[in-house]
Predict the 3D structure of the following.
Amino acid sequence: MNISYNWLKDLIDIDLTAEEAAVQLTRVGLAVDGIHPHGDDFVIDIDLTSNRPDCLSHLGVGRELRVITGKPLTAETQRHGEELEIPYPTVLSPDFVKIENPELCYRFTARIIRGVEIGPSPEWMVRRLEALSERSINNVADITNYVMLELGQPMHAFDLDKLAENRIVVRAARPGETIKTLDEIERKVEPSMLMICDAEKPVAVGGVMGGLDSSITEQTKNVLLEVAYFDRASVRSTSRKLNLVTEASYRFERGVDINNLQNASDRAANLICDLAGGELGEFVDVYPRPTESKTVESPDISKAVKRLTGLEVSAKESLRILNDLGISEDDESPASGSNSKIFVSPSWRHDIAIEEDLVEEVARHAGYENVANELPPAYHAGEYQHTEETERKIRRTLADQGFDEAMGYSFIDKKHDDVYELVPGLLDHRAENKYVELSDSVIEGAVRMRPTLLPGLVESARVNFNQQNKDLRLFEVGRVFASHLSEDNLPTERELLSLLITGKEIFEERALPGRELDFYDAKGAVESALESAGITSAEFEAAEVKHLRPGQSANISINGHPIGTVGRLNEEIAANYKFRQPVYVAEIDLQTVLAEPRSPVPYAALPRFPSIVRDVSFTVRRDITFGMVRDTIKAQSVELCRGVEFVDVYEGKGIAANERSLTIRLEYRSDTGTLVDDDVEQVHARLLKAVEENLHIKQRF
Amino acid sequence: MSDETTQVEAAGDEFERDLASLGEVQLVDADPSKAEELLRILGELKVRHTGKKSAIAAAKKLIGKVAAEKRADFGQLVQTVENKIVSTIAETEAKLKDLVSKAKTESERLDVTIPGRRPRTGHLHPITIVRQRIEDIFVSMGYSIEDDREIETDYYNFDALNIPEGHPARESQDTFYTTEGFALRSQTSTVQIRAMERRGVPIRILAPGRVFRRDTPDMTHTPMFHQLEGLCVDKGITMAHLKGTVTEWLQRLFDKDTRTRFRPSYFPFTEPSAEFDFSCFVCHGSGKLDGERCRPCKGTGWIELGGSGMVHPNVLRACNIDPTVYSGFAFGFGLERMAALVYEIDDIRHMFENDMRFLQQFK
């Protein structure tokens, strides 16, 4: 809201400079964003909170300054009907103004002014309007704007002679009606919208904008001045639906002063007579829904201020602040002496309903800067979320392994539906719509609450490839969503960990990358993350996974529960993104992992005797895995055999096309003495034989 | 001169000649690569001139045969010649060994300015870094970290927060809805309600989390962002405790001299309400840095951070807490804004693009 410093000084005799006034206003909650010189005036730009529509005028800001400075408001704002030479009230037939929807229009006043001469506004008015960025139109239109800026009450002037039957009907729009508004746009209106109509048609959108056809023109002789009060929600909804926000709608939807309509009408009518000639005519005030003043009971305002803010403000000073704000004691308040009081909320304040509201009024004027800085006494220990420690470890572990932490939008495009296999148990298959969908989005197409983090990571890979960054390791810890049938039907939310790797191993500050990353790097990262979570027993099993390439994909489970997948992104998805290099991804249900018991960490006494190791290579078909060989050896339960480790796998020259050479290392050790080769030969041979016979494979060397 | 003497002197001369024949020995300074070869030749010289079959060795055997009166002189002569040969060889050898060692050192000299060998380290997201730092501070101040649902009912997102139907904040087009009619929480204040329902009072929590508002992405807005909200409800809590708490954690996050400023404001779920600013952590409130306008605070010396206030009695009542017995404060702010301030990020959309050129800047 722009406020003219000179105008303000017309209303209250302050001896503050514009800067000083700005500091004071900011202090009490009318945040001044800037002061801009304009000729001999200063424009004070105030950023008002939505609860203070009463300050959308010079009068309102003047009231705050009254509390700040203790100076009275001048007569300019105190004018009432009796000062003006206006016949009042000249009640016309109820037909002249008829309110058909009193629930949308609480009060409507109309004033006739006859014989006006439309022309330019006087210099002083043009200057003031211009200072506040209002364009001068003509004297009558300018006056309606001027009084709105002065008193906060929007109003509209019609050309009386253009109103069919010269009368007003306030009613909801009829189906199919249209109106060309002042901005020369033909608008379709609907029955939920309140219209100001003449005997035939809408002539203004109530509280929003006047119609073009009935507006003031150079030919206008007789004026009907509308000053009314409309239902706030109705104006807001109409303004939204028409996508039309005006100075009037802005004020009406926040709330104007229903008791100030006649005052504002009189002020404008008087100015019109002064500046555009004309003679005051009839006045009608239709008030079908008289609004009662709200009262607020305060057992002890001074005590309440102390209780909520710690500020010591005397009862006397509290009362002064409230009274200067226009919040007066009700006549029915208990006799003075008692601290308990009933206050009447002024009709321009829509935000004063309870004692706490009064506390804020007193406290902001007493000054938040005077509130002490204290720490509350503490007698509880703080705590992290129970998963935080583990999540921090996982994040740190992955970052230490070269992963950057990604963060993606929770909403993604629907086109990813059914492209990715989701973590086990996420979807509720009983639900008709398995996914959560937004009614609409601000990012085109992004209406799906993501059921997987993977599309976001894959998209991030594309973003980086476009920047020629092709060696990537990314992870994200984030929530996914799915429908869930339950008592309240609130969707499932679950936290996942996903990661993506592609390209080569890279080194800090070195230009040349190392080897190509592959499946085992992705798997290793998952294992590291799980180990950080205290899970050392994850199982990986070859599996067909929707978004992964067959033969390079695995299901991951812990303690027998499936928790996710790892593998190479399939060719179809890769082709959609035009990826020319392999991309490996993994996604696990972190929430389930964090709920799993941590693997025990037993201590084993250090070996007292050295061990003997034997490396052995087998020629195996590709369907025979290291895991099968290892498990076969372990199944023999040979006490001396303490470990089976993977050494290497080789394919190519010397090995048949459908086979590979798998080398493993067996470790033998006894707890009772140092083994010699002869001790090992026999058991080693037995183990090899078991492997060969069980898996039908041959030892290579 | 006797034959023996001549013989000894000849041995000395021959050594000189042999040594001279090395020639390059004098030039080795210029050619360290030949030092090893010279050392080998020198070894041979040593054998030839001091070994058992050398002329000196032969001469030594003659000492006993020389006439007694000349024996001493002769012995002396042999000794002198031998000493000279031995010491010359030792000197030369030392010189050559030194050259060899130097040559070896030179050939193995490293360039210590080449970057150390280490795999690239990854980076945590700036939101994570800032969140963790602030969580640490609040846990140390006795707060429990809480989070809850991101998809909420209108009750938790609005009603319980004193935003009844018809309230502008509710009808505003800020809130995302699912087709089932659930709201994506538009503020983390929803966690206040659920936590108070779950934990009762007294309560002291900090709730970081994702929130959603229908803002089209631009340099300072994204439709999804993170908020961090603090709540403290107990008997006797006042706005002074709010100011003290906010000041304390900002001082811990920035520095001891950080000052705060509270300005009256409006939020439906607090009464009285205040916005809070803190003195700029770059210019320390002066608004100027090296004579230039300070960037983070735009020259004002103050940085606007968030909203706060005393928990509205209707909010307490919604959680079955008697507002005449208990009072509390709440405050909240955006983590993206905080991260943007701390790291001077000019476009917060980068936060969710996952461009590694952005991510790798946060250590």
Remarks:
- Chain A has five domains: 2-78, 97-286, 295-342+353-369, 388-595, 612-699.
- The radius of gyration of chain A is 40 Å.
- The mean pLDDT of chain A is 92.
